User: Which sequence fits this backbone?
């Protein structure tokens, strides 16, 4: 396998708050391989967005951050702010959650895309604008020549997200980080935007780190999945492994809480009981133990390690009961 | 844009009518010149009272809707529209318009430089404390702002006069600024006489404006598109000066326009303290002298300024913010 585009190694991020330190990300490690779509899945507060922002170096300056984020072998956490600016928007680009607010309302869409090009290369303004129109066309924005001269408020939500994607891929990044790119959009538009991202990825060869809480999105596009909970990686594997052979109670809980078209009529959704752990005072043992029906003393007292599921595969899972729940899960979850 | 401006100007006409009518009625109800003449001039007889009544149509109602021609307000309005603001009763029966214009020019000598100083200092302080939120300098600027807001204008003005006119003079034997009146015999004297009144005007207005600009800037800095700008790889300087500033300035434009209009309308307190021959002291003395024509002319001038600058702010909005389309 070729060298990963980005390699997150033992990353921990904490923020000081009035009530004490919040450990948003704890010892997270995972790689993104060239050209793959890696989905990072989790609920609010799981640390997935903070991981993404740390990768861009856009975490709040008050944050305490340890570990390494290696981009082509270079640790982004130890480079200067100036060097980091050269990476942002160039080697790593980001698409944000809410396209309604992510574009600057006072500048034309063309100017905002052209700016992205001009920051990172010596390109004339006219050339940047004409490339901006090409980029809009490549993400399926009709009449790009006219659209570049429009302001964000003249774009619909789906079109704005396309414009954001056009901006993100402008400099042919090696990694595209998409933080909940479809969450703020209508369901009918979500699928289109995912297709645009997939097409953009195929055209540019960029790897995608897709931050989402929506397993439907993951199933549609992801090659590999990282499940995060309480700031830790709970499960990691190919999409197939995580969807079909997960023995992690949290992952299974997530999956049985989403509606399916093919589930028998009248069957109720099974929500995960309780709420995600407090970021200020997380439970002492496994973060999921207070909500887990299989938890016992071992779970509430000590952390489980991330262990391989089966041998020789990349599928890893964090659960004390790994291998012991096969029957229970097969019977319990449909 | 032209049609919009024209429509806005037309829409201000009823506003001006209601405002002037209200003020006229108020003035007319508070003061009865005949009764005052009776008190101040024991020798005056009925011929004098009759002449006064005739001169100012005091026997007619302020507004008679059944017979508009019989109304004092309608008569005043008609004269005003032809450019005749009437004569002053307190300044030797001279035309009011000459007086107001001469005083307005003196007020402008203070207001224009004061506004430029205020706008630039407020913008710098507001932006700086927003960008360095919760830093020591932010706390220092915030504390000084509250001091400025809490400081009464008359007190700060007097303090400046005492300091530069007496204490500093006792200490060094030198008076760098004039502490009173307008000295317009030379440019250097004029500058020496505007420094202290402008400083007084600046303190209070800068204090409130810098708070407002800080709040506006903070809101913008924490918005998603600023994060997008950073994610593009822009330097922090460009993020602030290009992407944040223009958005943050949109609401500030209104404040600037209204503050400038207020300054041009004359500051009663500051101009009175520094014996500045501007509109403020004239308005004050005209009210005390029951000089209705003068008061009406000054108030009309201030009202037109306020409305005009409001309109200007709205037009600038359309220029700064493409979401506001002006048709």
Assistant:
């Amino acid at each position: 396998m070729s060298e990963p585009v980005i390699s997150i190694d033992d990353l921990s991020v904490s923020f000081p708050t009035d009530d004490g330190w919040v450990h948003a990300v704890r010892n997270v490690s995972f790689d993104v391989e060239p050209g793959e779509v890696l989905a990072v899945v989790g609920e609010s507060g799981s640390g997935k967005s903070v991981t993404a922002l740390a990768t861009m170096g856009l975490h709040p300056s008050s944050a305490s951050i340890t570990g390494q984020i290696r981009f082509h072998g270079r640790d982004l956490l130890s480079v200067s702010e100036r060097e980091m600016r050269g990476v942002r928007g160039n080697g790593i680009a980001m698409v944000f959650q809410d396209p309604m607010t992510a574009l600057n309302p006072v500048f034309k869409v063309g100017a905002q895309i052209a700016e992205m090009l001009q920051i990172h290369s010596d390109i004339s303004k006219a050339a940047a604008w004409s490339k901006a129109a090409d980029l809009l066309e490549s993400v399926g924005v009709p009449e790009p020549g006219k659209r570049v001269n429009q302001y964000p408020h003249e774009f619909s939500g789906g079109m704005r997200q396309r414009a954001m994607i056009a901006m993100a891929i402008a400099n042919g990044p090696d990694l595209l980080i998409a933080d909940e790119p479809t969450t703020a959009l209508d369901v009918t538009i979500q699928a289109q935007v995912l297709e645009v991202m997939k097409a953009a990825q195929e055209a540019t060869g960029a790897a995608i780190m897709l931050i989402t809480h929506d397993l439907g999105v993951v199933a549609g596009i992801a090659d590999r999945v990282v499940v995060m909970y309480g700031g830790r990686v709970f499960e990691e594997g190919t999409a197939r492994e995580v969807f079909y052979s997960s023995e992690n109670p949290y992952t299974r809980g997530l999956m049985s809480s989403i509606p399916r078209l093919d589930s028998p009529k009248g069957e109720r959704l099974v929500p995960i009981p309780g709420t995600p752990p407090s970021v200020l005072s997380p439970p002492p043992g496994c973060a999921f133990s207070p909500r887990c029906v299989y938890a016992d003393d071992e779970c509430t007292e000590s952390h489980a390690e991330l262990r391989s599921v089966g041998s020789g595969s990349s599928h890893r899972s964090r659960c004390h009961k790994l291998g012991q729940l096969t029957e229970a899960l097969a019977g319990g979850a449909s | 844009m032209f049609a919009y401006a024209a429509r806005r100007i037309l829409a201000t006409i009823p506003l001006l009518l209601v405002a002037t009518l209200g003020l006229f009625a108020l003035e007319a109800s508070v003061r009865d010149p005949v009764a005052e003449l009776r008190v101040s001039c024991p020798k005056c007889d009925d011929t004098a009272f009759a002449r006064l009544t005739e001169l100012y149509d005091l026997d007619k109602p302020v507004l008679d809707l059944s017979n508009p021609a019989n109304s004092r307000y309608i008569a005043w309005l008609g004269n005003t529209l032809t450019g005749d603001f009437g004569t002053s009763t307190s300044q030797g029966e001279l035309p009011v318009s000459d007086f107001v214009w001469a005083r307005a020019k003196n007020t402008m000598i203070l207001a224009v430089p004061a506004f430029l100083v205020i706008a630039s200092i407020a913008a710098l302080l507001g932006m700086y404390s927003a960008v360095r939120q919760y830093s020591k300098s932010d706390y220092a600027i915030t504390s000084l702002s509250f001091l400025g807001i809490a400081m009464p204008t008359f007190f700060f003005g007097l303090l400046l006069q005492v300091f530069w006119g007496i204490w500093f003079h006792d200490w060094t034997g030198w008076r760098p600024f004039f502490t009173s009146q307008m000295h317009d015999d030379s440019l250097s004297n004029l500058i020496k006489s505007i420094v202290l009144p402008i400083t007084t005007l600046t303190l209070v207005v800068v204090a409130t404006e810098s708070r407002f600009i800080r709040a506006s800037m903070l809101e913008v800095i924490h918005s998603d598109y600023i994060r997008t700008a950073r994610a593009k790889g822009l330097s922090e300087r460009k993020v602030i000066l290009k992407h944040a500033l223009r958005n943050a300035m949109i609401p500030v434009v209104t404040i600037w326009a209204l503050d400038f209009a207020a300054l041009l309308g004359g500051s009663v307190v500051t101009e009175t303290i520094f014996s500045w021959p501007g509109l403020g002291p004239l308005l004050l003395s005209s009210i005390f002298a029951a000089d209705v024509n003068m008061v009406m002319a000054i108030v009309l001038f201030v009202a037109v300024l306020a409305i005009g600058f409001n309109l200007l702010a709205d037009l600038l909005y359309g220029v700064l913010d493409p979401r506001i389309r002006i048709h």
User: Anything to note?
Assistant: Chain A touches chain B at residues 56, 58, 85-90, 93-94, 96, 98, 101-107, 115-116, 119-120, 151, 153, 164, 167 (CB under 8 Å). Residues 187-204 of chain A form the longest helix (18 residues).
